[in-house]
Amino acid sequence: MVIVCALLAGAARAALADRGARDRERANAVRAVRVYATRYVLASARLTPTYARQTGLACSACHTHFPELTPTGRAFKLNGYVFRRSESLEGKNPEGQQSLLLNLVAPVSLMFQTSYTSLKKALPGTQNGTVLFPDQLSIFTGGEITPHVGGFLQVTFDPQSGQLGVDNADFRFATHANLLSKRATLGLSLNNNPTVQDIWNSTPAWGFPYGSSAVAPTPGAATLVDGTLGQQVAGLTGYTMWNDRVYGEFGAYRSAPLGIERPLDSSATGVIKGAAPYWRIAFPNVWGQNYLSVGTYGIAASVFPAGVAGPTNRFTDIAVDLAYMHSFGPNSFTLDGTWIHEKQTWTAGGAANATNTLRTFRMDAMYHVGTRYAFTLAPFVTRGTSDSLLYAAGPVSGSRT
Fold first, then answer.
1. β-pairing, 149-158 with 130-146?
2. How far apart are CA 289 and CA 328, in angstroms?
């Protein structure tokens, strides 16, 4: 059971910009969103999370179901979260430049999740039927900061550790240009989780399952790009969407773990040597009521198993993905899938084998009945090289070796 609530209050923001330039950029943003918004935008906004107040759009304009994005939602994110139709208080200096912009409503929302987890057979020495209240509590903020800069920030309370910390973060700069006589969106993303900046739900950060029990046994093997680096790195990537048909993104990530002393020293573990390059290429297309994107993404990193010097272990992740959506009036069908291949080289030790491979496949097919219900079929599998040290056998969360 998941309960999601939204709570908004008042706040203020100041920005300096030329009014004429701002109006042109706002018009460009509106046109960019409209390209994607056909047949997806609802006339009235009935829900009020962070971005709904800024855009004046219903949640269902950007989401089939949270956090799965529609083409409109992807365009909004791609353009830096800056599209605005909400009322605000504005001020100008004597030269006519805008010197103040006050939001009438703060871009703040709250997510509360509670859960009950029961296993067919209780873990040895533990109580079955676990209630978490909350399972997760998150505060979100984001939206337009300046005419070209916007962001998304999630701060989460973990009831098991009793700690409040930064969760997902994505701050963007976006602008527009003509490349080869076609419209292009150019941007930068500063984020803390590879693929959290991605505009498709076929990559790990925003992929299915969107929520899971914090106490249910889960597989112990995961590739580097599949959440292992989340909130443990900081990265800067540059991206381009050309003619709404070709998307390319390249950047790098450097270790930035939370909750430990800086600078990183011999007590640190899992530190990336230098920076880890990241890449993303996709080819979206729209025809009729259909939207399809196929692409590839990946990351390569040399990691110190302990400390910040000495030999490293090498991980290279190469993935392919697919995202599809078909609209049936108020209903829709979506299909997202990814296949990740990781090559591991254990030069610094930590595994029984000198080299290993790990492969993950996930796919989810959803039929959405309006914006209230969704029926999902989601097969997934993780396989890899047998390694008695790295993937030790175990009765509950261990691997079959």
1. antiparallel
2. 8
How many whole angstroms separate alpha carbon 368 and alpha carbon 323? Answer: 15
Over the stretch 139-169, which tens digit does the pLDDT of each residue have?
Answer: 999 888 888 999 999 999 988 888 899 999 9
Same domain membership, residue 346 and residue 228 = yes
Structural domain tally of the chain?
2
Instruction: Give dist(CA 176, CA 191) in Å, integer.
Output: 21
Taking the C-alpha atoms of residue 218 and residue 287, their distance in angstroms, rounded to an integer, is 39
Q: Is residue 198 part of a domain?
A: yes
Structural domain includes residue 346: yes
Q: Is the domain of 147 the same as that of 224?
A: no
| Within a domain: 163 | no
* CA nearest neighbour of 226 among 303, 122, 322, 340: 340
Cα–Cα distance, 13 to 184 (Å, whole number): 29
CA torsion 203-205-206-212 (nearest 10°) is: 120
User: Is residue 204 located within the same domain as residue 287?
Assistant: yes
Q: What is the pLDDT of residues 24-59, one digit of tens each?
A: 444 444 444 433 333 333 333 333 477 877 887 788
Domain ranges, residue 343: 192-212+219-401
Paired residues of 240 in beta bridges: 186, 248
Question: How far is Cα 322 from Cα 336, in angstroms, rounded to an integer?
Answer: 6
Same domain, 67 and 196: no
